[in-house]
Amino acid sequence: MGGGNGQKSKMARERNTEKQKGAKGSQLESNKKAMTIQCKVCMQTFICTTSEVKCREHAEAKHPKSDVFTCFPHLKK
């Protein structure tokens, strides 16, 4: 028959440890691989989902003497 408080607590702990194991590793590696956009002037990298607006902001703030397309040639379309 069993099923006392001690057993219930043990089962709850085991379930929680199983849930913790589900989150494997860190996402840092995949974030590093996603850094595909690079400023050609300062070589700073940006994640692949960076918008054109953010690229323009970077170029205007960091390289005011350079053209936006000099920094990010992929914007020329």
UniProtKB/TrEMBL annotation:
Protein name per UniProt: Zinc-binding protein
Organism of this sequence: Melia azedarach (Chinaberry tree)
